[in-house]
Amino acid sequence: MDSMAVLPAYRGHKIQKQMVAAGENELAALGYRHLFCTVHPDNHYSLSNLLELGYTIIVTIRKYGGLPRHILYKSNGPAISALRYPGLDAHLLALPGAQKDFKAEWQWLRYRVGGKLFAALCTPGLQYGAYGGRTMLILKCEPLLAELYRQQFTDVVPGFYSDKRNWNSVYLDADLPKELVWSMCTHAYEQVFAKLTKKMQREITGIQ
What Gene3D superfamilies does its record include (predicted)? Predict the structure, then answer.
């Protein structure tokens, strides 16, 4: 991403943050998985926006005729999933009534049915310890099955930023079989769909 600016009259409303998030979505759709940007160390507002979006300062050097610049990096989660598991987005959206949106504040690509979350894609920042820097698919899961998956696969861990009893995180830089990941997605959907009202279930399936 290149230069970005907000007119003075519109500053203070996190517009830059929204523009960066929109740009990330466009880059993800094109398959880009590594994002870099620069900001002057004294530009506290822009720096704050980028850090909130999950960027990490990797080095501070002089550029553009000797001006100090932070170089920031972020791994673009949805793009990685598209490279490692092509068709993942299509599989999730093919489930009856599934809808997708992007939660800019969390940097989560969310998949919901009946307004309820059943899956999400994200790349937590490095401040989140063991979860940091790795792109993951967060999935609803029946508690006993969730524990079984964790015991069998080291790249399936308790859900990030969610109820760890009922959610798993699947690292997408791993080599889990595609069929297994697809099955986990379908199970996550079924867990949420089953809790919807009968009326909403009928509206989604079209079965009266």
Answer: 3.40.630.30, 3.90.1150.30
Which residues in the chain are classed under CATH 3.90.1150.30?
Answer: 78-205
Phi, psi at 147, each rounded to 5°: -65, -40
Prediction pTM value: 0.65
What gap in Å lies between CA 206 and CA 204, rounded to an integer? 6
The pLDDT of residue 188: 98
- CB distance 140 to 166 below 8 Å: yes
* CATH fold group of domain 78-205: Aspartate Aminotransferase, domain 1 (3.90.1150)
Q: Which fold has domain 8-75?
A: Aminopeptidase (3.40.630)
Q: Can you tell me which residue has the tokens 């990490």?
A: 56
* Integer Cα distance of 40 and 50 in angstroms: 12
For every residue of 46-71, DSSP letters joined together read: HHHHHHHTT-EEEEEEEETTTEEEEE
- 118, 189 in Cβ contact below 8 A? yes
